[in-house]
Amino acid sequence: xxFFDLLIQLLTNTKExxxxxxxxxxxxxxxxxxxxxxxxxxxxxxxxxxxxSMLFAVGALVAGEGTGLNIWFMLxxxxxxxxxxxxxxxxxxxxxxxxxxxxxxxxxxxxxxHQAHEYFEKHGTKAIVFSRFLPIxxxxxPFVAGAANMSFGKFTYYNVxxxxxxxxxxxxxxxxxxxxxxxxxxxxxxxxxIAVGTFLPxxxxxxxxxxxxxxxxxxxxxxI
Length: 224
Fold this sequence. Notes:
The protein has ten helices and no strands. By secondary structure, the chain is an all-alpha fold. It has one domain. α1 packs antiparallel against α2 (14-25) and α4 crosses α8. It is elongated. It starts with a helix and ends with a helix.
């Protein structure tokens, strides 16, 4: 199974793909999952990679017999991947951030950089921790934190808290709940629920922002 084919299969058929991967690659599974989590959190252009539902499925499968994988070693490996990935993303944001914000750029305006800097000074700690549980946002947040020149010490502290909380909660949720007969019978449905449930806050925030922008435009039009 080619690596990119594996990613596509993980997105569309999580449990069975993981089962095949654990059987075929055995202990190399640790490295493959490390790369996926590291890439999803480490590069602002890879928010499409599997995250929450995959972690739940990994925990459930490791809880079963025959994988030969250790839940504690998996926990350490994936926590390290999540923390290291966010750190790289922060560094990339710090290095490239201000350079991609330009006065004449209609998308990445310089004022957005200053707004981001102010936001992370006031609310950055919450953003780094809670964004871990929100697809897309967990990929963007560390980059913006770096671009906004958030203190590396402060970022690292909450990066570690968020990384440990994210990996531990989802991995052990799968590990503990995956043994329940009801969960085993309805596993794919639960994976879909997790995936949809984690995306809903992102969709809600996007729609709220869209309507707020529209209202401002309408108000502006009415004043003319």
